[in-house]
Amino acid sequence: xxxxxxxxxxxxxxxxxxxxxxxxxxxxxxxxxxxxxxxxxxxxxxxxxxxxxxxxxxxxxxxxxxxxxxxxxxxxxxxxxxxxxxxxxxxxxxxxxxxxxxxxxxxxxxxxxxxxxxxxxxxxxxxxxxxxxxxxxxxxxxxxxxxxxxxxxxxxxxxxxx
Length: 162
Known about the structure:
Blueprint: H1 7-11, H2 15-19, H3 21-37, H4 39-45, H5 48-66, H6 72-84, H7 89-108, H8 116-131, H9 135-161
Helix pairs in contact: 3-7, 3-9, 5-6, 5-8, 6-7, 8-9
């Protein structure tokens, strides 16, 4: 029996999704709710090994940010590591699809680039909440993370309306 793959879904996403900011915002909202819905499990399943890996990625993000650079690869890895211990391959693939669609949309449009230091700080807040095993703090940090992405999209929409 062959395993299910999301590859064909990603390959066949309508190009309009990549340029339609309303649909992109809707997609981000779905991703945010998926991630927020997993906060309890992420918090419960956190291990010292996972925290060490996240800390290493954060360090790399900080070094890049201090040089004025944003590392999309480290950002993606951070989120992959964040959910690795919930051991849900379907969730991991869905979140990766959302990641790839967002990256393609950013490449296809002129959505303002990520502020590297802001991205680092938002990820550090997620990490810190996880270190403290504080579920409410983790949820709040995740919401703040998404508000940053949505704010960039809203700024872009406003600039297009002018």
